[in-house]
Amino acid sequence: METKYSSQFTSHLYRETLKNHGFQQSMGQTGCCYDNARAESFFATLKKEIIHKLPLYKLTKDEVRIKIMAWVEGYYNKKRRNTANAGNLAPLRKRDQYYAEQKAA
């Protein structure tokens, strides 16, 4: 029985289609704010820091893809501070710190 909060992703037809194609749906409870928190945070940051600043009407799909990958690989993964780890270190600095601590031990 569908609730008033159902959506296309919780519908019987959608679940049957997934099942018929060999997929198993994975999702938490309706209204759980932690289901996709990391992914939603990443995409919000991506939109705020790169997508909304690009002149998308002037760029090809490949040019946009290159700019996004350059941002992810050159800034987001390497230089951007990460609040998920102690000290808010960028991922590469956190990794360097981890290996330095392992050598010292």
Record keyword descriptors for this entry.
0% strand; disordered N terminus; mainly alpha; 2 domains; 105 residues; 50% helix
Query: Which word captures the global form?
Result: extended
Order of helices and strands: HHHH
- Which structural category fits the helices and strands? mainly alpha
pLDDT averaged residue by residue: 78
Total number of β-strand segments?
0
Characterize the largest beta sheet: strand count, sense, and whether it forms a barrel. Answer: none
Q: Uncertain spans, ≥5 residues at pLDDT below 50?
A: 1-6
Please compute the radius of gyration using only Cα atoms: 20 Å
Strand content: under 5%
The helical percent reads 40-55%
Euclidean distance between termini CA atoms: 57 Å
Number of domains: 2
Count the DSSP helices: 4
Structure description:
- With 105 residues, this protein is mainly alpha-helical.
- The protein has two domains: 35 residues, no CATH class; 64 residues, no CATH class.
- It has four helices and no strands.
- The longest helix has 16 residues.
- The relative contact order is 0.06.
